[in-house]
Amino acid sequence: MTAEQLQRPLRLPAMVWTFLKLGSLGFGGGMAMIALMEMEFVKRRRLIDIEEFIHGVALSQILGSFPVNAAFFIGYRLHRWLGGVLAGLAFLLPSLAAVILLSWLYFTYHHMPLLQAMLDSMAPVVMGILVTMAWGMKRRLVHSPLVWALVLSGCLGSVARVNPLALLGGGGLLGWWQRMNTSHRPRKHPQPGPTAVVVGMVMSAAIYLVPTVFPLQEPGRLVLNVALFALTLVMVGRDKRHPALVLGIGALTGAIYGAIAG
C-alpha cells in the first residue's frame, strides 16, 4: 500500500471510539482481536500498511497482553503517546466491564445455558474471521518457498506452544539471512521474516477452534456452525461486511438455537 493510498489519520476522539467498539467485540481470544484490528485499520480505513501492522503485532508479543499492546501500537502510530495510551485503555475497558458483569451473573445464577449457546455460535464466526485474515495476509506477503516455510513453522510452533519470542526471533534471523544473501539482486516482493511467522500464528489460532466449531457428536450444532462459518467467509471475506454484523448474527442464531434445543 503506497503513501498515496493511505487515508488521513482518524481524529483522536474517533480513534478512541473505534477502539471502544473493537473492545466490545472481544470474543475469540487474542488473534481474533488482531484480525478485527487488521480489518478495521488496514483494510477498511487504510490507515496503516499491512507490513507495518504485522511488524506491530510481532512487537506486541514481547510482554503482556498482545492485543492491548497492538492497540497501543496503532494508537501511537496515529496520535503518538497520547493516542497509544488512550487506545490501550479504550480497548481494555469494555472487556473488563464484560468480565465483571459475567462473573457476577455466573456466581449469582451458576448456570447460563442461553449465554453458552450464544458463545458457541460465535466461535465459527471468529474462526471465519481468522481464516479471512490469514488468507488476505498470505496473498499479500507470502511469495517464496522460504516465507512459506516460515508460515508453516509459525503455525506448527504455535500449535506446539513454542514460545512466540523464539518463533519471531527465528523468523527474523532467517529473513535477515535471506536479505543479506539476495541484496545484490532486485526483489519482486518483500521477504518478511517475523511477519510470515505471524501469519502462521493466525492460522494456528483458527486450527485451535476446529474441535469447538465442528462438534461431530452434535449434528444440529455441527450444521449450524458450518453454515455460520460459510456465512462469515462470504460476508467478511468476499463482501467486506463489518465483522460486528456477523458476530451479532451468530449470537442471535445461537440464542434461538439454544431456546429451541434447550
Roughly what fraction of the amino acids lie in strands? under 5%
Largest sheet: none
Radius of gyration: 19 Å
Overall, the morphology is globular
Low-confidence stretches: none
Which structural class should the secondary elements be placed in?
A: mainly alpha
Q: What's the SSE pattern?
A: HHHHHHHHHHH
Quantity of strands, as a count: 0
Helicity, as a percent range: over 70%
- Number of separate helices: 11
Quaternary form: single chain
What does this structure look like?
With 262 residues, the chain is mainly α. The protein contains eleven helices and no strands. The chain has helices at 12-24, 30-44, 50-60, 66-109, 113-141, 145-159, 164-181, 194-208, 210-213, 219-238, 243-261. Helix 2 (30-44) packs across helix 4 and helix 5 packs antiparallel against helix 8. It is globular, with a radius of gyration of 19 Å.
Layout: helices, strands, pairs:
Layout (H helix, E strand, L loop, with lengths): L11 H13 L5 H15 L5 H11 L5 H44 L3 H29 L3 H15 L4 H18 L12 H15 L1 H4 L5 H20 L4 H19 L1
